[in-house]
Amino acid sequence: MKEIIRKSFLKKFKSTPKLFKSPGRINLIGEHTDYNDGFVLPASIDKAIYFAIAPNNLDKFRFFAFDLSEYFETEISEIQPAKVEWVNFLLGVIAQFVKENKQVPGFDCVFGGDVPLGAGMSSSAAIECGLAFAINNIFDFNFPKLDLVKFSQKAEHEYAGVQCGIMDQFAVMFGKQSQVIKLDCRSLEYEYFPFKMENHLLVLVNTGVKHSLASSEYNKRREQCEAAVNLLRKYDPKITSLRDVTLHLLEKHESEFDPVTYKRCNYVVKENRRLQYACEALANDDFNLFGQYMYGSHKGLKKKYEVSCKELDNLVKIAKKTKGVLGARMMGGGFGGCTINLVERKHVDLFEKSIKKSYKTPAGEEPEIYRVVIEDGTSLIV
Ligand code: GLA
Question: For residue 117, what pLDDT is reported?
Answer without folding.
Answer: 83
